[in-house]
# Entry
Amino acid sequence: MRREYTCIICPIGCDMTAEIEDNEMVSLVGNNCAKGRVYVQQELTNPIRTIATSVLVKGGELPLASVRLNKPVPKASLFKVMAEAKKVILLAPVRIGQVALQNVAGTGADLVVTKHVDAIH
Amino acid sequence: MENKDVIIIGGGPAGLAAAVQLYKLGITNILILEREKHLGGILRQCIHDGFGLQRFCESLSGPEYAQRFIDEVRELNIPYMTEVTVTEVTAGRKVTAISRRGVMEFQAKAVALTMGCRERTRGAISIPGTRPAGVYTAGVAQSYMNLANIMPGQEVVILGSGDIGLIMARRLTLEGAHVKAVFEVQPYPSGLPRNIEQCLNDYEIPLFLSHTVVDVKGHSRLEGVTVAQVDEQYRPIPGTEQEYNCDTLILSVGLIPENELSLGAGLTLDSRTKGAVVDEDYQTSCTGIFAAGNVLQVHDLVDFVSIEAERMALSIQECFLSSQFGNAEIEIVVDASISYSVPQKTTGKKDFTLSLRPKRPGRNCTVFVKQENVTIARKKFAKVLPAEMIQLAIPAERIDPEKKLEITLI
Ligand SMILES: Cc1cc2nc3c(=O)[nH]c(=O)nc-3n(C[C@H](O)[C@H](O)[C@H](O)COP(=O)(O)OP(=O)(O)OC[C@H]3O[C@@H](n4cnc5c(N)ncnc54)[C@H](O)[C@@H]3O)c2cc1C
Ligand code: SF4
# Structure
């Protein structure tokens, strides 16, 4: 079976065509680099994604700090990650790189802060 | 009035990269003026990742990308002022700014315009119907959600397939809203393919090409929109109308350079880029006034914004060193296959990078840069999209100063 993919790994977004038999990739054309192949392989077995969202901050100059997953998680667990993130409240100041939530929804990935938020003086 | 070597207007990625580069080149009597409370520009609200892949070889979020430059500005002790709005730039490079502390005036040897862009609004694309609440541009919805923690609505329709709209489709879905569909008037998407994939397809949000909103309903709050298919002339086709109930309509219909100050200074603008006309030094029609980043041409990738701003900084240094501010006379023109090019003029004395956008998607195309029948540069592309800016190097030694440069994509 032939299937079309758009690689999401970098902004080039290669259009790829894979020949698939019994859920195994037998050939792939259109990928500019090896990452495209890894991506299709992953899509076939267990699609993974990273997402970004925000968590609440108390006592900060902003009400929110942006966070993102430090590694991709199975697509199916994205909404669980969001539900967990909604429960987090950090105390200002928060710094980029700070872990907002460890092993979020049991995925093994952490939610990491991506914006400095200073405390209100 | 204070004298400065360079005044940089706008502390977004373009302004920050320009400042850092100027400083490293030894031009230190500079000042960044930023209207907002924080440096970083629009990236502060772009919390998704995918920034910096080219530059830092890792996938950062917008705020992290901006912070790398802000950190450099701080480490180098580059002077900047926030909550200061520039209200006027004259052709003679006098810069007037206001803040809560009052009015400030500067005389600059060079001015770097890095004010970014604005979003096209409903007025700019003239959607008929009532004027209820619940109609937002994608960037405004993004700032509500990512900066102020306000949810714009629950039942959402998106008009326009620009990247910010696609990113917002995913963001709204993850936050529990129901994004019914994205409608695009063009027969092809205007956002990047990877965003169609990971923001729409992942969440089974349908994208309808050659469709537009023909009516907006609701009194105090939006209640629904009517959508129709369009023909090649973008005219709605009668009988194809469909109703969608929704409380929110997000417009992602394009960005236009922020031109207030440029107009005030009397700069020549390009009707295609909607930004200033520049030469290969990023110098505008006004000697000593330069422009880079989204104020010059709307970029899809911030990595290119930083590079462009750094090139502009280098040009400013060269102009200072030689005390010569180029006088570009060779015109660069594009044919119907191309939306625009930057620069639009060249002195013909320096190698430079030409940026352009194709009008339509295409495969296995070649960009030709010609002077009459002589090809002076060409580059082949496996795939081109209006959503992606393309670039090629132009060698000065091959340019005939008597003739214009003509660009075509075949
Ligand atoms: C809503 C939105 C979302 C975007 N999302 C993405 C994305 O996801 N990925 C991506 O790669 N690109 C994105 N872009 C494109 C993005 O704008 C560029 O990549 C990049 O931020 C442009 O940098 P800049 O410095 O040219 O402009 P900006 O980041 O817009 O910075 C301009 C700065 O100038 C300041 N300014 C303007 N006028 C004045 C004045 N008169 N006085 C003082 N200061 C002034 C502004 O406050 C602002 O801080 C987005 C753009 C918009 C509008
Ligand atoms: S295949 Fe390689 S070059 Fe193509 S989009 Fe994926 S990562 Fe980028």
Q: What stands out?
A: The pocket of flavin-adenine dinucleotide (ligand 1) is lined by residues B 9-15, 33-36, 41-43, 46, 51, 85-86, 114-117, 119, 139, 142, 163-164, 167, 255, 258, 261, 293-295, 299, 301-302, 305 (CB under 6 Å).
